[in-house]
């Protein structure tokens, strides 16, 4: 039980909740669009059941992601993906929309739409949350993931509009979130089994996992990389946008 009272556990929980809020904006939009044609009496049920199904599906996906991250080089690939996700968070695609989300006046159809759409959109959440969970105590990643996601459910369902307004008013929240993904990417990269486990691919150079300076230095480098690429991409998108 004491492993759930460590600072590392609660830092990881905070990261998971932050990730799910920042990357859950699209999910909140999908939920609203899928349920918009439901009768008012069924709308809340559709939101709750659709979100519950999507969260269960995400837990299953994260379980497999945590298992797969034990394979050499997959953390390297995951780190690169997180950098890309962080950059997209700081410089979103102006052409990205949700016009293909179908609404339904049937409860089960709306729930199905939410779950299927969340499956397609969950790769960013899954990789980011799996990476954050790696910072917890060994063998306790899944309880951490489930706990973090459960905490985030009411935030997404009931507080998504408030969160979106806060992000619009305080853009630094989004900047911090993008840098957080870069931090997780850096620490994930240096802990890849190919670089961290002595008897895995012995021909590969190994990184000293007992050195906090290496881990935190990689995290800072990842955060700064996302910030720099995000600012550059946002400036390029702004320059390329049609005038008027």
From TrEMBL:
Keyword Transmembrane: yes
Origin: domain of life: Bacteria
Alphabetically ordered keywords of this record: Membrane, Transmembrane, Transmembrane helix
Regions annotated as coiled coil: none
Similarity comment: family membership: Belongs to the TerC family.
GO cellular component labels: membrane
Protein name listed in UniProt: TerC family protein
Membrane topology, as annotated: Multi-pass membrane protein
PANTHER family linked: MEMBRANE BOUND PREDICTED REDOX MODULATOR, SLL1022 PROTEIN
InterPro entries in UniProt: Integral_membrane_TerC (IPR005496), Integral_membrane_YjbE (IPR022301)
NCBIfam families, per the entry: R_switched_YjbE (TIGR03717)
Taxon lineage: Bacteria, Pseudomonadati, Pseudomonadota, Betaproteobacteria, Burkholderiales
Subcellular location per the Swiss-Prot or TrEMBL entry: Membrane
Main location: membrane
Membrane-spanning intervals of the chain: 12-34, 55-87, 144-164, 170-190
Species in which this protein is naturally found: Simplicispira suum
């Amino acid at each position: 039980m004491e492993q759930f009272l460590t600072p590392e556990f609660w830092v990881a929980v905070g990261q998971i909740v932050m990730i799910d809020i920042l990357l859950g904006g699209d999910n909140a939009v999908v939920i609203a669009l899928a349920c918009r044609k439901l009768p008012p009496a069924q709308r809340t049920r559709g939101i709750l059941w659709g979100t519950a199904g999507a969260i269960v599906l995400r837990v299953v996906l994260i379980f497999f992601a945590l298992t797969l991250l034990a394979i050499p080089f997959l953390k390297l690939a995951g780190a690169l993906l997180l950098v890309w996700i962080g950059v997209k968070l700081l410089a979103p695609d102006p052409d990205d929309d949700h016009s293909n989300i179908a609404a339904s006046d049937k409860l089960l159809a709306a729930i199905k739409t939410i779950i299927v759409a969340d499956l397609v959109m969950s790769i960013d959440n899954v990789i980011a949350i799996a990476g954050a969970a790696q910072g917890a105590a060994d063998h306790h990643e899944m309880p951490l993931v489930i706990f973090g996601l459960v905490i985030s459910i009411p935030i997404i369902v009931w507080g998504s509009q408030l969160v979106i307004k806060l992000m619009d008013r305080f853009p630094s929240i989004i900047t911090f979130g993008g840098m957080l993904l870069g931090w997780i990417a850096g620490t994930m990269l240096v802990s890849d089994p190919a670089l961290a486990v002595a008897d895995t691919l012995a021909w590969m150079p190994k990184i000293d996992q007992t050195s906090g300076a290496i881990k935190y230095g990689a995290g800072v480098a990842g955060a700064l990389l996302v910030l720099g690429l995000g600012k550059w991409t946002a400036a390029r998108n702004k320059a390329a946008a049609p005038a008027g």
